[in-house]
Amino acid sequence: MQPEDNITKEETIRDKAPDISDVGLDTTEDGALSQEDTPKSGNKTREALRGYFSATRISYIAIFTALAFVFYLLDFSILPAVPFLEIDFSNTFVMIAGFSLGPVAGVIVGVLKEIIHALTMGTTMFVGELANILFILPYVLIPSIIYKKRKGIKTVIVSLVLGSVAQVIVSIPVNWLLNFPAYMKAFMDYSWKEGMDFFLEVWYWALLFNVIKSVLISAAVLLIYKPLSRLIKTTNARFEKLAQNRAKKASGTARPSPEGQTFANTAGMAYNFSMTVKVSFSDEQTIELGKAYAARLKAGDVVLLDGEMGAGKTVFAKGVAAGLGIKDEITSPTYAYMNDYDGRLYHYDCYRLKSGAEAEGLGLTDYFYGQGVCLIEWSGNISSVLPPNCKKVTIRKSGENTRTIEYE
After folding, report:
1. How far, in Å, are 290, 316, 402 from residue 395 at the CA level?
2. Under a CB-based contact definition with an 8 Å cutoff, are residues 254 and 215 in contact?
3. Beta strands in 157-300 (DSSP E)
4. What pairs with residue 348 in β-bridges?
5. pLDDT digits (tens, 9 = 90+) for 128-182
6. Residue 255: helix, strand or coil by DSSP?
7. Which of 98, 267, 274, 305 fits as disulfide partner to 233, beta carbons 3.0 to 4.6 Å?
Protein backbone atom coordinates (compact mmCIF):
# COMPACT_ATOMS: atom_id res chain seq x y z
CA MET A 1 0.00 0.00 0.00
CA GLN A 2 1.57 3.30 -1.10
CA PRO A 3 1.23 6.39 1.08
CA GLU A 4 -0.40 9.52 -0.21
CA ASP A 5 1.87 12.43 -1.15
CA ASN A 6 3.22 14.63 1.66
CA ILE A 7 1.90 12.39 4.44
CA THR A 8 4.45 11.25 6.99
CA LYS A 9 4.35 7.84 8.57
CA GLU A 10 3.44 9.38 11.93
CA GLU A 11 0.44 11.15 10.43
CA THR A 12 -0.66 7.96 8.70
CA ILE A 13 -0.81 6.08 11.98
CA ARG A 14 -2.29 8.97 13.97
CA ASP A 15 -5.14 9.44 11.52
CA LYS A 16 -6.00 5.76 11.73
CA ALA A 17 -5.82 5.44 15.50
CA PRO A 18 -9.17 4.46 17.03
CA ASP A 19 -10.58 5.29 20.41
CA ILE A 20 -10.01 1.84 21.86
CA SER A 21 -12.76 2.20 24.42
CA ASP A 22 -15.35 2.74 21.69
CA VAL A 23 -14.37 -0.05 19.33
CA GLY A 24 -17.15 -2.63 19.01
CA LEU A 25 -16.80 -6.14 17.70
CA ASP A 26 -19.47 -8.80 17.28
CA THR A 27 -18.51 -12.15 18.73
CA THR A 28 -20.16 -15.52 18.93
CA GLU A 29 -21.13 -17.07 22.25
CA ASP A 30 -17.79 -18.85 22.53
CA GLY A 31 -15.87 -15.63 21.96
CA ALA A 32 -14.95 -16.27 18.34
CA LEU A 33 -15.45 -13.53 15.81
CA SER A 34 -18.77 -13.83 14.00
CA GLN A 35 -18.83 -14.66 10.30
CA GLU A 36 -21.68 -13.29 8.26
CA ASP A 37 -21.71 -15.72 5.40
CA THR A 38 -21.37 -19.10 7.10
CA PRO A 39 -22.37 -21.86 4.64
CA LYS A 40 -25.36 -23.84 5.83
CA SER A 41 -26.19 -26.09 2.89
CA GLY A 42 -26.20 -29.86 3.05
CA ASN A 43 -23.28 -29.99 0.65
CA LYS A 44 -21.17 -27.83 2.95
CA THR A 45 -22.06 -30.08 5.89
CA ARG A 46 -21.02 -33.16 3.97
CA GLU A 47 -17.79 -31.48 2.92
CA ALA A 48 -17.10 -30.52 6.54
CA LEU A 49 -17.70 -34.11 7.67
CA ARG A 50 -15.41 -35.47 4.96
CA GLY A 51 -12.79 -32.94 5.96
CA TYR A 52 -13.10 -33.83 9.65
CA PHE A 53 -13.10 -37.60 9.16
CA SER A 54 -10.02 -37.69 6.96
CA ALA A 55 -8.21 -40.99 6.49
CA THR A 56 -5.48 -39.91 8.87
CA ARG A 57 -7.86 -38.79 11.61
CA ILE A 58 -9.72 -42.08 11.34
CA SER A 59 -6.39 -43.92 11.59
CA TYR A 60 -5.47 -42.11 14.79
CA ILE A 61 -8.94 -42.71 16.25
CA ALA A 62 -8.40 -46.41 15.56
CA ILE A 63 -4.95 -46.35 17.21
CA PHE A 64 -6.22 -44.60 20.33
CA THR A 65 -9.20 -46.99 20.49
CA ALA A 66 -6.90 -50.02 20.29
CA LEU A 67 -4.65 -48.65 23.05
CA ALA A 68 -7.66 -47.84 25.21
CA PHE A 69 -9.09 -51.34 24.77
CA VAL A 70 -5.78 -53.03 25.66
CA PHE A 71 -5.51 -51.02 28.87
CA TYR A 72 -9.18 -51.74 29.56
CA LEU A 73 -8.20 -55.38 30.08
CA LEU A 74 -5.63 -54.47 32.76
CA ASP A 75 -8.15 -53.69 35.48
CA PHE A 76 -7.93 -54.18 39.24
CA SER A 77 -10.01 -53.40 42.30
CA ILE A 78 -8.75 -51.27 45.19
CA LEU A 79 -11.62 -51.11 47.70
CA PRO A 80 -12.82 -54.35 49.34
CA ALA A 81 -16.23 -52.81 50.10
CA VAL A 82 -16.96 -52.49 46.38
CA PRO A 83 -14.73 -55.13 44.73
CA PHE A 84 -16.67 -55.10 41.47
CA LEU A 85 -15.67 -51.46 40.89
CA GLU A 86 -12.34 -51.83 39.10
CA ILE A 87 -9.80 -49.27 37.95
CA ASP A 88 -8.28 -49.37 34.49
CA PHE A 89 -6.32 -46.75 32.57
CA SER A 90 -8.18 -46.96 29.27
CA ASN A 91 -9.60 -43.46 29.68
CA THR A 92 -6.05 -42.09 29.65
CA PHE A 93 -6.00 -42.63 25.89
CA VAL A 94 -9.56 -41.43 25.53
CA MET A 95 -8.51 -38.15 27.13
CA ILE A 96 -5.33 -37.86 25.02
CA ALA A 97 -7.50 -38.39 21.93
CA GLY A 98 -9.81 -35.61 23.10
CA PHE A 99 -6.90 -33.20 23.54
CA SER A 100 -5.04 -34.06 20.34
CA LEU A 101 -7.89 -34.87 17.94
CA GLY A 102 -10.72 -32.82 19.44
CA PRO A 103 -13.74 -33.42 21.71
CA VAL A 104 -15.76 -35.37 19.14
CA ALA A 105 -12.90 -37.75 18.41
CA GLY A 106 -12.33 -38.26 22.14
CA VAL A 107 -15.95 -39.28 22.67
CA ILE A 108 -15.80 -41.58 19.63
CA VAL A 109 -12.72 -43.35 21.04
CA GLY A 110 -14.45 -43.75 24.42
CA VAL A 111 -17.65 -45.13 22.92
CA LEU A 112 -15.84 -47.49 20.54
CA LYS A 113 -13.71 -49.07 23.27
CA GLU A 114 -16.85 -49.66 25.37
CA ILE A 115 -18.68 -51.24 22.42
CA ILE A 116 -15.72 -53.53 21.68
CA HIS A 117 -15.52 -54.49 25.35
CA ALA A 118 -19.24 -55.23 25.49
CA LEU A 119 -19.05 -57.45 22.40
CA THR A 120 -15.93 -59.36 23.48
CA MET A 121 -15.72 -59.28 27.27
CA GLY A 122 -19.00 -57.87 28.54
CA THR A 123 -20.96 -59.66 31.26
CA THR A 124 -23.64 -57.10 32.16
CA MET A 125 -25.67 -56.95 28.93
CA PHE A 126 -23.96 -53.65 28.00
CA VAL A 127 -25.24 -51.97 31.18
CA GLY A 128 -21.75 -51.57 32.68
CA GLU A 129 -20.40 -50.23 29.41
CA LEU A 130 -23.30 -47.78 29.14
CA ALA A 131 -22.52 -46.53 32.64
CA ASN A 132 -18.88 -46.06 31.66
CA ILE A 133 -19.92 -44.04 28.60
CA LEU A 134 -21.96 -41.76 30.84
CA PHE A 135 -18.90 -41.34 33.05
CA ILE A 136 -16.68 -40.63 30.04
CA LEU A 137 -18.81 -37.83 28.59
CA PRO A 138 -18.20 -35.14 31.26
CA TYR A 139 -14.66 -36.30 31.98
CA VAL A 140 -13.53 -36.05 28.34
CA LEU A 141 -15.75 -33.31 26.94
CA ILE A 142 -15.11 -30.64 29.58
CA PRO A 143 -11.28 -30.71 29.38
CA SER A 144 -11.07 -31.17 25.60
CA ILE A 145 -13.55 -28.36 24.87
CA ILE A 146 -11.75 -26.00 27.25
CA TYR A 147 -8.38 -26.95 25.75
CA LYS A 148 -9.66 -26.38 22.23
CA LYS A 149 -10.46 -22.78 23.14
CA ARG A 150 -7.38 -22.07 25.27
CA LYS A 151 -4.14 -24.03 25.03
CA GLY A 152 -1.50 -24.42 27.74
CA ILE A 153 -0.45 -26.82 30.48
CA LYS A 154 -2.21 -24.74 33.15
CA THR A 155 -5.42 -25.08 31.15
CA VAL A 156 -4.88 -28.82 30.94
CA ILE A 157 -4.47 -29.17 34.71
CA VAL A 158 -7.45 -26.98 35.56
CA SER A 159 -9.67 -28.65 32.96
CA LEU A 160 -8.72 -32.13 34.19
CA VAL A 161 -9.74 -31.12 37.71
CA LEU A 162 -13.07 -29.80 36.41
CA GLY A 163 -13.63 -32.95 34.35
CA SER A 164 -12.83 -35.15 37.34
CA VAL A 165 -15.25 -33.28 39.58
CA ALA A 166 -17.97 -33.55 36.93
CA GLN A 167 -17.35 -37.28 36.53
CA VAL A 168 -17.57 -37.88 40.28
CA ILE A 169 -20.86 -35.97 40.45
CA VAL A 170 -22.33 -37.88 37.50
CA SER A 171 -21.19 -41.19 38.99
CA ILE A 172 -23.58 -40.88 41.95
CA PRO A 173 -26.92 -41.10 40.08
CA VAL A 174 -25.51 -43.46 37.43
CA ASN A 175 -24.23 -45.93 40.03
CA TRP A 176 -27.42 -45.67 42.06
CA LEU A 177 -29.91 -46.02 39.22
CA LEU A 178 -27.98 -48.18 36.76
CA ASN A 179 -24.58 -49.63 37.57
CA PHE A 180 -25.13 -51.17 41.03
CA PRO A 181 -28.62 -52.56 40.31
CA ALA A 182 -27.44 -54.12 37.02
CA TYR A 183 -24.40 -55.76 38.62
CA MET A 184 -26.31 -57.06 41.65
CA LYS A 185 -29.06 -58.45 39.43
CA ALA A 186 -26.63 -60.18 37.05
CA PHE A 187 -24.29 -61.75 39.63
CA MET A 188 -26.12 -61.89 42.97
CA ASP A 189 -29.72 -62.39 41.93
CA TYR A 190 -30.81 -59.14 43.58
CA SER A 191 -33.84 -57.28 42.39
CA TRP A 192 -33.27 -53.88 40.79
CA LYS A 193 -34.58 -52.10 43.90
CA GLU A 194 -32.35 -54.18 46.18
CA GLY A 195 -29.38 -53.17 44.07
CA MET A 196 -30.33 -49.50 44.47
CA ASP A 197 -30.71 -49.98 48.22
CA PHE A 198 -27.29 -51.62 48.40
CA PHE A 199 -25.72 -48.59 46.73
CA LEU A 200 -27.21 -46.33 49.40
CA GLU A 201 -25.40 -48.43 52.01
CA VAL A 202 -21.95 -48.08 50.36
CA TRP A 203 -22.31 -44.87 48.36
CA TYR A 204 -19.37 -43.20 50.10
CA TRP A 205 -17.08 -46.07 49.03
CA ALA A 206 -18.26 -45.73 45.46
CA LEU A 207 -17.67 -41.99 45.65
CA LEU A 208 -14.14 -42.52 47.01
CA PHE A 209 -13.47 -45.05 44.24
CA ASN A 210 -14.40 -42.55 41.52
CA VAL A 211 -12.28 -39.82 43.11
CA ILE A 212 -9.24 -42.13 43.21
CA LYS A 213 -9.86 -43.30 39.64
CA SER A 214 -10.16 -39.76 38.28
CA VAL A 215 -6.97 -38.64 40.05
CA LEU A 216 -4.96 -41.64 38.82
CA ILE A 217 -6.11 -41.29 35.22
CA SER A 218 -5.49 -37.54 35.19
CA ALA A 219 -1.99 -38.12 36.59
CA ALA A 220 -1.35 -40.71 33.85
CA VAL A 221 -2.47 -38.22 31.19
CA LEU A 222 -0.01 -35.63 32.48
CA LEU A 223 2.81 -38.20 32.59
CA ILE A 224 2.51 -39.55 29.04
CA TYR A 225 1.45 -36.52 27.01
CA LYS A 226 5.01 -35.34 26.29
CA PRO A 227 6.36 -38.56 24.72
CA LEU A 228 3.05 -39.23 23.01
CA SER A 229 2.83 -35.72 21.53
CA ARG A 230 6.39 -36.06 20.21
CA LEU A 231 5.45 -39.36 18.58
CA ILE A 232 2.39 -37.78 16.96
CA LYS A 233 4.45 -34.84 15.72
CA THR A 234 7.06 -37.16 14.15
CA THR A 235 4.36 -39.21 12.46
CA ASN A 236 2.68 -36.03 11.24
CA ALA A 237 5.93 -34.83 9.65
CA ARG A 238 6.17 -38.10 7.73
CA PHE A 239 2.60 -37.72 6.46
CA GLU A 240 3.39 -34.18 5.37
CA LYS A 241 6.48 -35.32 3.46
CA LEU A 242 4.48 -38.05 1.72
CA ALA A 243 1.81 -35.49 0.80
CA GLN A 244 4.40 -33.21 -0.75
CA ASN A 245 5.95 -36.08 -2.73
CA ARG A 246 2.52 -37.05 -4.04
CA ALA A 247 1.88 -33.45 -5.02
CA LYS A 248 5.10 -33.32 -7.05
CA LYS A 249 4.24 -36.56 -8.84
CA ALA A 250 0.73 -35.29 -9.56
CA SER A 251 2.02 -32.12 -11.23
CA GLY A 252 -0.46 -30.92 -13.82
CA THR A 253 -3.38 -32.80 -12.32
CA ALA A 254 -6.08 -31.63 -9.92
CA ARG A 255 -4.55 -30.68 -6.59
CA PRO A 256 -5.84 -32.46 -3.51
CA SER A 257 -7.66 -30.50 -0.87
CA PRO A 258 -5.47 -29.16 1.93
CA GLU A 259 -8.01 -30.61 4.38
CA GLY A 260 -7.07 -34.14 3.40
CA GLN A 261 -3.32 -33.78 3.14
CA THR A 262 -1.87 -33.98 6.60
CA PHE A 263 -2.57 -35.16 10.10
CA ALA A 264 -2.53 -31.46 11.00
CA ASN A 265 -6.10 -31.30 9.73
CA THR A 266 -7.02 -33.81 12.37
CA ALA A 267 -5.61 -32.16 15.41
CA GLY A 268 -4.45 -29.06 17.13
CA MET A 269 -1.77 -31.49 18.40
CA ALA A 270 -1.32 -32.02 22.08
CA TYR A 271 -0.43 -29.47 24.72
CA ASN A 272 1.42 -26.72 22.84
CA PHE A 273 4.38 -29.06 22.31
CA SER A 274 3.48 -29.53 18.65
CA MET A 275 1.90 -27.50 15.92
CA THR A 276 -0.97 -27.92 13.54
CA VAL A 277 0.54 -28.23 10.07
CA LYS A 278 -1.40 -27.69 6.86
CA VAL A 279 -0.27 -27.80 3.25
CA SER A 280 -1.51 -25.42 0.54
CA PHE A 281 -0.93 -25.90 -3.19
CA SER A 282 -2.28 -22.55 -4.38
CA ASP A 283 -3.15 -19.03 -3.27
CA GLU A 284 -6.81 -20.02 -3.25
CA GLN A 285 -6.15 -22.83 -0.77
CA THR A 286 -4.02 -20.51 1.38
CA ILE A 287 -6.95 -18.07 1.51
CA GLU A 288 -9.29 -20.89 2.52
CA LEU A 289 -6.91 -21.93 5.29
CA GLY A 290 -6.80 -18.31 6.45
CA LYS A 291 -10.60 -18.28 6.61
CA ALA A 292 -10.60 -21.46 8.68
CA TYR A 293 -7.94 -20.06 11.01
CA ALA A 294 -10.04 -16.91 11.58
CA ALA A 295 -12.66 -19.07 13.32
CA ARG A 296 -10.11 -19.69 16.08
CA LEU A 297 -9.65 -16.01 16.82
CA LYS A 298 -11.37 -13.82 19.35
CA ALA A 299 -11.42 -10.12 20.07
CA GLY A 300 -8.04 -8.85 21.26
CA ASP A 301 -5.92 -11.67 19.82
CA VAL A 302 -2.45 -10.76 18.54
CA VAL A 303 -1.21 -13.08 15.79
CA LEU A 304 2.44 -13.13 14.67
CA LEU A 305 2.44 -13.99 10.96
CA ASP A 306 5.97 -15.13 10.12
CA GLY A 307 7.57 -16.27 6.88
CA GLU A 308 10.22 -15.29 4.37
CA MET A 309 9.67 -12.74 1.63
CA GLY A 310 7.11 -14.04 -0.85
CA ALA A 311 5.96 -16.91 1.37
CA GLY A 312 2.32 -15.80 1.13
CA LYS A 313 1.76 -13.96 4.39
CA THR A 314 -0.49 -11.32 2.84
CA VAL A 315 -2.40 -14.02 0.95
CA PHE A 316 -3.08 -15.76 4.25
CA ALA A 317 -4.07 -12.39 5.74
CA LYS A 318 -6.69 -12.05 2.99
CA GLY A 319 -8.22 -15.31 4.13
CA VAL A 320 -8.22 -14.23 7.77
CA ALA A 321 -9.94 -10.96 6.83
CA ALA A 322 -12.56 -12.83 4.80
CA GLY A 323 -13.11 -15.20 7.72
CA LEU A 324 -13.74 -12.19 9.96
CA GLY A 325 -16.38 -10.91 7.55
CA ILE A 326 -14.27 -8.06 6.12
CA LYS A 327 -15.16 -7.22 2.52
CA ASP A 328 -12.43 -4.65 1.83
CA GLU A 329 -9.49 -5.42 -0.41
CA ILE A 330 -6.51 -6.54 1.68
CA THR A 331 -3.13 -5.13 0.65
CA SER A 332 0.29 -5.22 2.25
CA PRO A 333 0.81 -2.18 4.53
CA THR A 334 4.55 -2.04 3.81
CA TYR A 335 4.78 1.75 3.82
CA ALA A 336 1.82 2.59 6.05
CA TYR A 337 3.03 0.06 8.67
CA MET A 338 -0.54 -0.87 9.59
CA ASN A 339 -3.91 -1.02 7.85
CA ASP A 340 -7.04 -0.67 9.96
CA TYR A 341 -10.12 -2.55 8.73
CA ASP A 342 -13.03 -1.03 10.63
CA GLY A 343 -11.50 -1.78 14.01
CA ARG A 344 -11.97 -5.51 13.45
CA LEU A 345 -8.56 -6.29 11.96
CA TYR A 346 -5.26 -4.44 12.26
CA HIS A 347 -2.87 -5.74 9.62
CA TYR A 348 0.78 -4.83 10.34
CA ASP A 349 3.89 -4.99 8.17
CA CYS A 350 6.93 -4.26 10.36
CA TYR A 351 9.56 -4.99 7.71
CA ARG A 352 10.79 -1.38 7.64
CA LEU A 353 10.72 -0.87 11.41
CA LYS A 354 14.04 -1.09 13.22
CA SER A 355 12.92 -1.60 16.81
CA GLY A 356 10.04 -1.97 19.19
CA ALA A 357 10.68 1.56 20.41
CA GLU A 358 10.01 2.87 16.92
CA ALA A 359 6.73 0.99 16.76
CA GLU A 360 5.79 2.35 20.15
CA GLY A 361 6.64 5.88 19.05
CA LEU A 362 4.31 5.53 16.07
CA GLY A 363 1.46 4.42 18.32
CA LEU A 364 1.32 0.94 16.81
CA THR A 365 1.35 -0.77 20.18
CA ASP A 366 -1.89 0.95 21.23
CA TYR A 367 -3.84 -1.45 19.03
CA PHE A 368 -2.56 -4.51 20.92
CA TYR A 369 -4.98 -3.82 23.74
CA GLY A 370 -8.07 -3.02 21.67
CA GLN A 371 -10.98 -5.16 20.61
CA GLY A 372 -9.77 -6.03 17.11
CA VAL A 373 -7.46 -8.80 15.93
CA CYS A 374 -3.84 -7.75 15.29
CA LEU A 375 -2.11 -9.64 12.47
CA ILE A 376 1.61 -8.79 12.44
CA GLU A 377 4.05 -9.57 9.62
CA TRP A 378 7.80 -9.38 10.40
CA SER A 379 7.02 -9.34 14.11
CA GLY A 380 10.64 -10.08 15.03
CA ASN A 381 11.54 -6.46 14.34
CA ILE A 382 9.34 -5.29 17.23
CA SER A 383 9.65 -8.29 19.54
CA SER A 384 10.57 -6.14 22.55
CA VAL A 385 7.11 -4.55 22.71
CA LEU A 386 4.91 -7.49 21.77
CA PRO A 387 2.31 -8.48 24.39
CA PRO A 388 2.53 -11.89 26.10
CA ASN A 389 0.56 -14.91 24.87
CA CYS A 390 0.65 -14.01 21.19
CA LYS A 391 -0.56 -16.60 18.73
CA LYS A 392 1.85 -17.57 15.96
CA VAL A 393 1.43 -18.62 12.33
CA THR A 394 4.47 -19.60 10.26
CA ILE A 395 4.35 -19.98 6.47
CA ARG A 396 7.17 -21.76 4.65
CA LYS A 397 7.84 -22.33 0.97
CA SER A 398 7.99 -26.07 0.36
CA GLY A 399 7.73 -25.97 -3.43
CA GLU A 400 7.09 -23.59 -6.30
CA ASN A 401 3.42 -23.24 -5.42
CA THR A 402 3.33 -25.26 -2.22
CA ARG A 403 3.23 -23.70 1.20
CA THR A 404 3.44 -25.32 4.63
CA ILE A 405 1.42 -23.41 7.23
CA GLU A 406 1.96 -24.06 10.94
CA TYR A 407 0.11 -22.69 13.92
CA GLU A 408 -0.61 -23.60 17.53
Report:
1. 11, 9, 10
2. no
3. 276-280
4. 338, 376
5. 788 888 888 998 999 888 877 766 677 788 889 998 999 999 989 988 988 888 8
6. coil
7. 274
